[in-house]
Amino acid sequence: MSDLLQRVTALARAAKVASRAVALSSTTTRDQALRAAAQALRAAEPAILAANAQDLAAAQAKGLTAAMTDRLRLDHGRLEAIAVACEDVAKLTDPVGEVTEAWDRPNGLKIIRRRVPIGLVAIIFESRPNVTVDAAALCLKSGNACILRGGSEALHTNLALAQAFTAGLAAAGLPTEAVTLLPFTDREAVPALGSLRGIVDIIVPRGGPGLIEAVVNSAKVPVIKHDAGICHVYVHTAADLAMAEAIIVNAKCQRPSACNAAETLLVDAAVAASFLPIVGRAMATQQTEIRGCPRTCALIPTANPATEADFRTEHLALVLNVKVVTSLAEAVTHIETCGSHHSDAIITADETVARSFLAQIDSACVYWNASTRFTDGGEFGFGAEVGISTDRLHARGPMGIRELTTWKFEVVGTGQIRG
Known about the structure:
The chain has 419 residues and is α/β, with parallel strands linked by helices. The protein has 2 domains: 3-224 and 399-411, Aldehyde Dehydrogenase, Chain A, domain 1 (3-Layer(aba) Sandwich), CATH 3.40.605; 231-374, Aldehyde Dehydrogenase, Chain A, domain 2, CATH 3.40.309.10. The chain has 14 helices and 16 strands. The strands form 4 sheets. Strands 10-9-11-8-7-12-13 form a 7-stranded parallel sheet, sandwiched between helices.
């Protein structure tokens, strides 16, 4: 066994032991820990911001992009938001122990399906240091322990955040190993975590395609992931065009690097002549490149021709694919063929058409007259999120505390035996 694997295994084993203590703890104790963690984060602000300044200086020396540097940066306001998120998670209803179903069998057996924690959750992420606390808070509230591996660009910040959070665990009498941040960022730590079958119960990768592919290809434990965020907005012939303009500007431009940002706009041919010039002007104002089909390029002279690959690409930048379609059926076919089953929206005043779209689009989140940017744990009322899943088993869409539980069956009898 390599030295790195030994170190990861030792940390994971300790976290696994801690997961039992967390699973058996009371809601009151876990909520107390979350509130104490929030206070510890506030008290540690000078140390956390100093660590963040160290990471920022290294990022600038490495030539990281402005967008990457902004994701990394913390200040008083951002740190306060992280602390408030802990307190918000503490206010959520505890899912642990919830009875989801109960029934009696003809032989007198009583069967109960009850929510229980998953156990030890490994979360591998990049860039955003707030994920350290969001993941820790959600795992703790749902009765789990977590082992975290962040990106090298935020190592000092993540270590400072984790140290503050574990002070909250200690204040509530919970083992500090319940939130374990790997103190190294070696690439080999990813397959090492994924190899720990029987210790790690599930892995959630949160990052770019390269990270997700590396986790999926190496893991021997279950993985919950999202493959890409190729999100669509379809403007139907019955759309309110002013609403459609506002939604597409928000969905594309408000935060183009987010996985829930729109990558493709589909416009019904019946409104293309009136709507696409509006889109062209709006995107020009937002310094956003349009890559369009031939009809789009004819109506927006500044558009560049789109390739087939463009419609299958998560740009994560100020680039918008635009295609004119002749019907709802063509829009659905395009989304199902080129999309990633993440988040897709229709803009229309026709409820029948909207209901048909919502039924036919097989994505984690489907929208009617709203921006895809709402696919987010905080926006869904989950307090935060561990990630967004495009998988179909166990969890789908933003993952909050309920998605961090599984269930077990309690079977109560009076001496029944099977004949």
